[in-house]
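Hello K.,

You asked for the raw outputs rather than the summary table, so here they are, unedited. I folded two proteins back to back in the same session to keep the settings identical. This is the first:
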Amino acid sequence: MRPSAARLSIRTRLALIYTGLLASGLIAFGAGTFVVLRAELLRSFDASLVANAEHAAGAFAQDVDTAGRLRPSERLLEQLASTGGRVIVVDERRGVVADSAPSGTPAPPLRPADFDDADTDAHIVHEFMSAEGDRRRFTVQAIVLPTGQHVGYVIWADSTRPLDGVLQVVGTALALGGLLVVGGALLGGFVLARRALAPVADVTETARAISLSGDFAARVEGGRRGDEVGELAVAFNEMLEALEQNHHALQSFLGDASHQLRTPLTTIRANLDLAERAGLPAAEREAILADARDEAERMGRLIGDLLSLARAESGARLEFAPVELDALLVESVRRERQAAPHVRMSVESVEPAVVEGDRDRLRELFGILLDNAARYTPPGGRVAAALEVHDGRAVARVTDTGIGLDETDRARLFERLYRGSRARAMRPSGTGLGLAIARWIVDSHAGTIELTDREGGGTVATVKLPVRAS
C-alpha cells in the first residue's frame, strides 16, 4: 500500500471510492446526455434547414419569365430571409441570381458535387465557419418547374448559434449539477461511512479501554446482526463474554485453590514440624507421617477437581464420538470396586446404549458418582449401578445404602465447594467439587442429573443422556 493511501482512514477511503464511482457515473451519464441531445438538436436543425430550402425552391419556381429564366423578386427574397437564414439563388449555370446577405459577404464553400446531390434530392447538409467565426450549416435544393425543368438552385444557410447556446446552457447545467451532486455525495459518503463504521470505532475504543483497565465486562454498544460491521461488533462482544467468563473462571480457580489448598498444606506443615521433634516415639511419628500422606493425597485429588472445574468453566471443548455407555459403566464399576473394598459394589442390570459423547468425561462422571456413593456408605453397605434405555434416552442410576440426603441441602448439592451437613460429619476431608463437575459433564452432553432419596435409606443418582440416533 502506498504511504499516502495508508494515512487515509477507512471511512475517508470509502467516501472517496463511493464519490469517485458516482462521479464516473455522472460524467458518463452527462456526456451521453450531451451527445444525444446535440445529435437530436442537429437533426432537428437540419430538418428545419431542408424544409426551408424546399419551401423557398417551390416559391422561386413561380418567379420565372416566359423564357423559363429565374426572376426572384426582392419582396419574396426578403420575406424568406426574415426567418433568420441566408438565401442564395443561382441559375442553371450556377451563377448567383440573388443573395439575401449584404454585398461582399463570402458565400458558403460550394462544390460541384453539392449541386449534383441537389439534383437527386439528397438533402445533404454541410457545415462551415463564417468570416465572423460563426458556425453555420447549409443545404442546396434544386428549383424545378411544374413541367419538370430544372431552372436553378436555392442555397439556404443558417447559423447554429441558438443551438450552440442551448448546448452551452445544458452543458453548464450538467457540469454544475454534477459538481453539486458529487459534493453532496462526498459529504453524505463521509456521514454514511462514519455511521456504518461506528461499531468499528466502538470496538477500537472498547479494546483500548480493556487494555488499560482490564475490565472484560465492557461491551460494544449497538452491536446488531444484519450486516458485516454489525456481525463484527456481535462477534467482538461474544469474544469479550468468553474472555470475561475465562477471567472469572481463572479468578475463581485461584480463589478456590488458595482457599482449599491452605488447609492441607497447613496440616502437612504442622505434621512435619511435629515429626522433626527429637525423642518422638516411632509409632507416633509414623502416625503423623501417615496423616501428612493422607493430606497430600487429598490435596492431589483437590487439585485434580479444581483443574476439571476450571476446564469446565473456561468452556473447554469436548471430543464427541460414539460411546458404548453400557460397557463404560461396567468398566467404571470394576475400577471403583477396587478402590472401595469396604462396600459391596456391583452392576445390577445394563441395556446396550450408545451415546454421542466424550468418553473420558463420561468415565469421569461415573467415577464421581460411584466414588461419592462409596465414600458416604458405611462399611458393609451396598452400591449398585444400572442402565436402561427409555424414550430415546439412556438412564443410568447409581444407588447406595449410605447416609442419604438432608432436605435442607438438596437445593445446593451441585454448587461448587458445597458439602451437605451429613457429608461433612461423615467425611470432613471432602472437597465439595465432585457433583459440580458431574453437573457440567451432564450439561455438556445435553442430559440431566438428579439426586433423590432411596426408599429404605440411601441415595439414588440418576443421569439421563440422549441415545445416539442409529
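The second followed immediately with the same parameters:
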Amino acid sequence: MRQNIILFILCVSVIINVTGCSVTRFTETRLGQGLKKANKTKFKLDFQFDYNASDKSFNLALAHQPYSIYKPRITLIDLGAGLAAVGIWTMVFYDNWDHDNTFDFTDDTFDWYDSEWWEKAVLIGVPADILLYWTFAYPFDRKSIKMPKQLLTNHPYRIVLPDHGYKGVDYTTTTGEEQIRIKEFLSQLGNTSYLRGLDSLKFRSITDISGKQHRRNYTVSPFFFPNGNGPDPLPKLKIQTKWTKNPIRAGEKAILQITVKNTGDTLLRDLVVTTSSDNPNFNNWEHDFGNIQRSESRTQAISFSSDTGIFSDNVTVILYFKAHIGNVGQVFTEALDISR
C-alpha cells in the first residue's frame, strides 16, 4: 500500500511536469527566475518636466524605462508532449468506461477502483496540470516586469516659449536629471521685457527620440519676472516630519506626522504631499493640506499599514510637496524600522 502511494505521487508529479511544467514554471516565475527566460523587452520613455517654486527652476528627467516580458515559446516538444498527454488521458478514460469495446456507453459505468495506479495518476495529473497552468502560471508567464531606468545622458533637448514665437534655448543632458533655472534661461533669450506683467507663462520642453518628437508643457502661474534683489512674492515653506513611533512591530499602523508653515508673503493654495517608496504599503499616497495662509502652521498625519508576515524591514519614504505654483519646499526622506 505504501509503495503504491509513493508510485502514485511520483507518477502524478511526472505527468504534471511533462505536460507543461506548470509547477516548475509557476515557481520559477514567482521567484523571479522567469526574467532569465525573457524573450521580449519593451522600452517606454520616461520624460518628466516639472517646476520647483522654491528655487524658481525646472526639473527635467529623461530616461528609458525598460520592461522585461516573459512569454514562453511553445516548442514542438512541448506541443507533442501536451497532445500525447491528452491522448493518453482519453485512452485511459475510454478504457475504464467502455469495458466491452462496443462503443456503447449506455450500459457501462466508469470503473475507478479497478483501474491501475498509473491510470489514476493520468486521470488526475493531466487535468491538474491544465488547471494549475491556466490558474496560476499563465498570468505570471505574461507578466511585464519593470527593470531599472536607463538615464539618457548627452542627449539634446530644447526649452521654448510656445506662446511667444517659440523662442528658446538648446541644452544637452549631462546626467539625465537636469535643473534649469528660469533666470538663467530668460537671460539667454535676449530682450524679455515683453514678459513683464504676465500672470502666467507657458514653457515647453522638446526632445527627439528615434525620430519621434516628444513634448512636455508646464505653465507657471502666477509668474513673477525675475527683478534683482526685490522681495520674493512666492510662498515659502518650513516643513517638519516625524514618525509618532519608530520602530514599530509588523502589523502595526505607522503614523507620519507632518507640520507645514507658510513663511512667505502670500497665500499658498492647494498644497498636496505625495509619497514614494519601494514598499507598496507606503508608496503613492497623497494627502491634501488645502490652502495655507501667510504665517499659518498646520499639522496633519498620514497613517500607513504594515505587513504582518515580514520578519524585519527598513522602509524609506520620500515626501514631495506640490502646490498651485508647482513643487515647493525640499524633498524629505523618512526611514522607518519594522520588526517582528
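The mean pLDDT is 75.

Happy to rerun anything if the numbers look odd on your end.

Regards,
P.
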